[in-house]
Amino acid sequence: MNILVIDDSATTRGLLKRALLQSCEDSVVREASDGKSAIHELALGKVDLITTDLEMPGIDGHRFLETLQRNPLLRRKKVLVFSSAITPELRKKFSDNPNIAFLNKPASNQAIADTVLGLMAQSPA
Q1: CA distances from 81 to 59, 70, 112, 117 (A)
Q2: In 3D, which of 53, 31, 51 has the Cα closest to residue 41?
């Protein structure tokens, strides 16, 4: 599985990368520090799963999610929103998309693994 981790914190990217590699052993994890570099990474190759923070400089997670939703080729990507800024309104906004899951920071490696594996088990929308 090809995974793209988007977070402006190198520490958080490292923690997520370790957690994802433990639960998805044959995966390749690429990293991006904001939405703009994430869009560039998406153009470079196949991505099966995206994790994104919401609060980042430049193109933040909100704008990144909106960009994905507007693009017919990207709207079916599996996305884990991993942030301390998840609101009920945001959950409601994307409640009709089974390809988007939410997990509040901080979370255990097990919670990350369970959420990712559950998301990947979902049929594409």
Answers
A1: 15, 17, 11, 14
A2: 31
51 phi-psi bin (left φ>0, alpha ψ -120 to 50, beta other): beta
| Sequence-distant (≥ 6) Cβ neighbours of residue 114 within 8 angstroms | none
- With CA atoms as reference, report the closest residue to 15 among 117, 118, 105: 105
Q: How many CA atoms lie within 13 A of 48 on its CB side?
A: 16
Question: Model confidence over 53-79: pLDDT tens digits?
Answer: 999 998 899 999 999 889 888 888 999
Which tokens in the block code for residue 55? 């609060």
